[in-house]
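Troubleshooting: if your tokenizer reports a length mismatch, compare against these two reference records.
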Amino acid sequence: MNNRMRIFAILIALIATAPNVFAEIKLSNALAKDIGQAYGFYLGQNYSLNEISKKYPSLSGLSLIAEKEFSATFKSSIEGMDALMAKHAKSEWNKIKKQLTTQIASSIQIDQISEAQARQFVELVRERANGNIESPVIETYLLFKSGYEKNPEREFLDGYKYKYTTNGVGKAKGVAFSIESPKTWVAKEGNRPNIVQKFVSENGRGLEILLILIKEVPLQPGEKITEKDVLEILNPKDIQDFIPDGGVHLNSGKLTLENLPGFWVHFKMDMARVRNTVGMETIMYTIFYKNKMIQIQGQVMTSINGEPSERGGLKKYEKLFDLMANSLVITDIYK
């Protein structure tokens, strides 16, 4: 086993016995590996900048600027990862950081780097300060970035976004569209009928989900759903037909998305899963395009077996779900 894999193995062993929550982020072996990689990335970058400053004094000013710019953007991320590990295994984590530092020092040969190459690296760090960092390191930094956990819409508004695009094949039923999600929300294939795509929080390991569904609507040739039809749907009796069995209607209203008529519904329900009962709160955006009903569903877990979740409920994610839904673009409309 090489040094890097040994360090990751130690991280995983530490996490496996740690408590479940830090800043409401669930710990897992996969997250431990990501933290090790992201923290090592940071240490290696700082070590390289320091060595460049020593070897090429003319670049020391630029190196310091690059380091400060990176810290201004991601210092809180580094501190968050450090605090998480120190909270559960401070002594062991300090040893691991020393091992990482030793490994980095032995693997980076500064004497073999020309001044031109050193200058290019400094400029690369400045680009990284703007978020131009390879995956999965950037996602790990964003997961721990200050303010993003309490206000998840900030990641989206700050431009850390991913665009999902489909040409209409398969479950999309001929509807070509794109939609945006935060970088830390991983796009996954829907495993049930009509679910085109789902996006899962916390690098695909979270409990919040956004679903995209497309269903056929039995319309006559030339017939279409109008705003008048939507208003009729929104009466208390008919709106319940759009809510799963057992769901409780909380609120609803009409909306316009892509200049198409539609409505939104906020509901809650309990779902039995194996031996557990999970409370869910959902906001569902529905629009009608030709003979298709397009639904975007933002779902948040609110309880497990009657015990309330500490993750903030739908209110915490409502702004983000609005932003994600509003990013929907149906390609054929603009042809």
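Reference record two:
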Amino acid sequence: MKRHLLSAGDLSREDALLILDTAEELSKVSQRSIKKLPTLRGRTVVNLFFEDSTRTRISFEAAAKRLSADVINFSARGSSVSKGESLKDTALTLEAMGADAVVIRHGASGAPHRLAGWIRGSVINAGDGTHEHPTQALLDAFSIRRAMGRVEGLKVAIVGDVLHSRVARSNVQLLHTLGAEVTLVGPPTLIPVAVDTWPCQVSYDFDAVLPKTDVVMMLRVQQERMNGAYFPSAREYSRRYGLDRDRFAKLHDDAIVMHPGPLNRGMEISAEVADSPRSIIVEQVGNGVLVRMAVLYLLLGGSESAIGGGE
């Protein structure tokens, strides 16, 4: 693997499968009474979050601690810190502290790439603007593979606010790399203009896509990123693009439902569907820790034998 994880598009099929297979091996550790490995003892992982994110930050923190790394949580909210020069100053501070890996979430697309040019440690993109969120795509692929037994050849529909979704961008790239067929579904106002360069299909008709779909990934409607009127009303959006009981019934019996969270229950997904046995939303959260353990483990040079060794 390379030194950084900045984009799902940087991962070859071999890289992606290595991460998924390593996460599967690490899941055995999570079943022990003591869920820790000594692999990254003495290493320092910094969580550098310029945007709020409870689940992703806690997931990375849990992953690093299970590998015995030291973790520093650096919350850098506020306008003065989010300017480019300030990011560089922060990077120099982290460098002086001897950070081996920096997990960064930033409101500006491209911030992790900038950071990677300024520090010697590994940089992991935990979400930058509306650009990418590669570890979310990896945990989604891992979750699909666990639930369905494979990723290759599956038909995946990613539905909703694609325009503002870094999760969608990363998933389209990674799932294509792993051999799935991806269709983006949403209102025309929420599908990016550049989508014709992405390796996927586009549909504006959710009902037509559902019967031939194996995996439905619902996206959160990101109202906080919307400056204009992207759809007439929440009710109208839900009527056309929400996954409710009636739409759920159009899926074949083995199809599964996903959501990166947090959910707007009753808007893009009904509570009944979110809590159904064919929803793997809760599993996605747990799988996130395993996948992030695998990424830290591989980037920071864990030895293969350490996974199986020692209780």
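Descriptive notes for reference record two:
- The beta strands are 44-49, 70-75, 101-106, 122-128, 155-159, 181-185, 201-203, 215-218, 256-258.
- Confidence is low (pLDDT under 50) at residues 303-311.
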